[in-house]
Amino acid sequence: MPKHSSIGIFDSGVGGLTVFREIARALPHHSLIYLGDSARVPYGTKSAETVTRYSLQAAAHLIDRGIGMLVIACNTATAAALPALQASLTIPVIGVVEPGARAAVARTRGRVGVIATEGTVRSQAYTKAIRLIDPKIEVIESAAPLFVSLAEEGWANTHVAREVAEIYLEPLLDANIDTLVLGCTHYPILRGTIEQVTGDKIAIVDSAETTASFVKSAVRHKPSGTPKHQFLVTDAEERFRRIASDFLETEIEHLELVTL
Amino acid sequence: MPKHSSIGIFDSGVGGLTVFREIARALPHHSLIYLGDSARVPYGTKSAETVTRYSLQAAAHLIDRGIGMLVIACNTATAAALPALQASLTIPVIGVVEPGARAAVARTRGRVGVIATEGTVRSQAYTKAIRLIDPKIEVIESAAPLFVSLAEEGWANTHVAREVAEIYLEPLLDANIDTLVLGCTHYPILRGTIEQVTGDKIAIVDSAETTASFVKSAVRHKPSGTPKHQFLVTDAEERFRRIASDFLETEIEHLELVTL
Question: Cα–Cα 20 to 30 A to A211, which of A173, B88, B177, B186?
Fold first, then answer.
């Protein structure tokens, strides 16, 4: 990674902002460029082929802006497109699945639950990544699609969200998981509500946090100059701005509309 | 409309199937082609420019398949793109907003509530259409985005949906509406739950039903031959098939993946 290049962070929309936030905390001196493909969000219900095509377009755009590392801050895109991205790009590409899988293996006593979008669950990306490290671990994956809308509507800490969390988590609690992976970058927004349901006996793996640690360990230099945070979206800037201020707990500057 | 041509029905995804169902009931001898742009769903959070571009591409595809009439079975696409579609196509183009607005005016005693997606509410399409007919009517529009995910997840008749409905409808009930327009084609799936909250004092205008009546009155011929129902999607056929069987209460045949 060249000394002056920034880190590109790509997501289908706003969910990856939880990853952005953790990377900004972990690497406060680095310039970051976030790209949310809000014209084509959500990826979670789309086919792997479509998600791969969109991800390659997004990566090409960020490469043109001179990034030195690419973080795929979307579980669905990581599950579908990471091998294609790593094969076609010459800079390091980091997804959110492997860091989450490693953290789950480090913490579990043998039974891991994963909640994610339909696309990620269908791909069984977490089951494969965890079993590759330790084939003895039991992995139970379950889709929790309503969490995405609840996070984006600002309903993360409502009674409705609590009730939805109880319904989604019941089969995982019944299966006696000891560790729960938040396998969608929207879900950290609902972490408080999820923890009310799981209680303190179950370890939570937040893929935003674990990915940021992974990125930090992969970066070898400390950049000079003032770090800059840029945000690019493919549609609906005002909606992005509103939700981003919720997710990042600060107003964003440098928001630009781009076409992929 | 030529005697042998079919009716095209276009939506961003699965929501327009409620319109399809009502048109199939109203015109059982007509062939229908449904196109769901599932690769780019949802439209409700996208800008008017993007929705117009996508709608023109979808219309061009259906024209190539020889439709004689186009129904825009999506409130967001109607609000954003109907004038552009009517200007660029030579066949009749019918949207869902005008039929709903007419039905609301016919039923109200003066206070109409509208629930819809963020995009439709932002456009104020219903307020404008209703006021054009009768400027004295009060119109209160309110976004109810979670209803879309609830309908698609098959959660329409759950306690969660009931609670969400109570939250979304409270400001409209407080404003003493006498008529409620379901201004998103997903919402008829939740009609039972919504009526539990509104009670029997408030008239419900279901834009799927009213659009089907409007289409029926615009069709002058009775076609010969066996009617055929075709379904086209731009992505994720299996998800479409599953939700469609829920929405239509029957399994669908002739499902085809297309690129726009």
Answer: A173
